[in-house]
Design goal:
Structural class: alpha/beta
Strand order of the largest sheet: 1-2-3-4-5-6-7-8
Distance between the termini: 39 Å
Shape: globular
Number of helices: 14
CATH topology of the largest domain: TIM Barrel
Number of strands: 8
Length: 319
């Protein structure tokens, strides 16, 4: 099973939609919905996870699991119960976000120094939602170090989680390579047999070779891919031995991406979102480098739309 990771400010509902159209992804996790001290209205959940309006799936039919972030077990449980009523394909709990503003508000990776609290959060959410709704968690190896990684994983498993994703770095490591897959393997192996749950490996999976090695080192059959899929939309297909995605497939998807960005994002930020994705794509596709160079100095909607139209026409009618 291959999961598409959430990435705040990058891999949101728009990019989930476009990337799942290329194939290979079995399930997505949404970017986090922050829970503080109140029961959120349904519109907040739908804003972050618009797939809730379509059976909890992307337009390509890929199920989406909604993610919550917070530190109050009772409030998280109440919000999870409301969210469960909207039909997500499970509820995920965020214990991995490294953002300073999130951590300063006692959310994300900072909770990895409090395994007991993590356990209470998972247990409260598990009790609050119907038994048929899966509850999963995503964690890093730790906050400043990985000395409590086993404690956190055990707490999550003991509390009744159905699944655990481990990003094989600490908060202090950020997103710098390498990912410590061997340490992830130790955490997975430390779970006693009566607490065994599916552990999914995440971090530094950019190529098919990376996926093969990650599986070998971690012992995890299932993988979560983030930036690797943004850079190479055909990566999931390639990992499954189904080829990949040629550049010729991407201009129509860039057009779809732009249309959705235009509907969801303020005008002044739209060009930046397209360039952000092209910046990733150019690591894999030479054509994306040319596209990035063509658009780098332009922010006007008319210019970008004319460029996208030309690209689509060129692919439809090659010389």
């Amino acid at each position: 099973m291959l999961l598409l990771a959430p990435m705040e400010g990058l891999l949101d509902a728009t990019l989930r939609d476009v990337l799942t159209r290329t194939g290979g992804i079995d399930r997505c996790v949404s970017e986090f919905i922050r829970v503080t001290d109140m029961l959120l209205p349904e519109r907040v959940f739908v804003r972050v996870v618009p797939e809730l309006l379509h059976g909890g799936r992307t337009r390509a039919g890929v199920p989406v699991r909604a993610q919550l972030l917070g530190s109050d077990p009772t409030c998280l449980a109440e919000n999870a119960a409301r969210l469960a009523g909207l039909g997500p394909h499970g509820i995920d709990l965020n214990f991995g976000c490294p953002a300073k503003t999130v951590n300063q508000s006692r959310g994300g990776a900072v909770l990895l120094d409090e395994p007991e609290l993590i356990g209470r959060i998972v247990a409260a959410v598990r009790r609050a939602v119907p038994a048929h709704v899966p509850v999963s968690a995503k964690m890093r190896l730790g906050f400043n170090d990985d000395t409590r990684a086993e404690e956190c994983a055990h707490a999550i498993a003991e509390a009744g989680a159905d699944e655990l994703v481990i990003h094989a770095r600490t908060k202090a490591h950020g997103y710098r390579p390498p990912a410590y897959w061997d340490r992830l393997a130790e955490v997975r192996q430390s779970l006693p047999s009566h607490l065994r749950l599916p552990v999914i490996a995440n971090g530094e999976i950019w190529t098919v070779a990376d996926a093969v090695r990650c599986r070998e080192v971690t012992g995890c059959e299932h993988l979560m891919i983030g930036r690797g899929m943004v850079t190479d939309p055909g990566l999931a297909l390639a990992i499954k031995g189904q080829g990949g995605v040629a550049w010729e497939v991407l201009p129509p998807l860039l057009q779809v991406f732009w249309q959705q960005v235009s509907a969801r994002v303020e005008r002044r930020h739209r060009a930046g979102r397209l360039k952000q994705w092209l910046n990733y794509l150019r690591k894999r596709y030479p054509e994306a480098q040319q596209a990035y160079d063509d658009l780098r100095l332009f922010n006007e909607t008319a210019h970008i739309e004319a460029w996208l139209q030309r690209q689509t026409e060129q692919q439809a009618c090659p010389a």
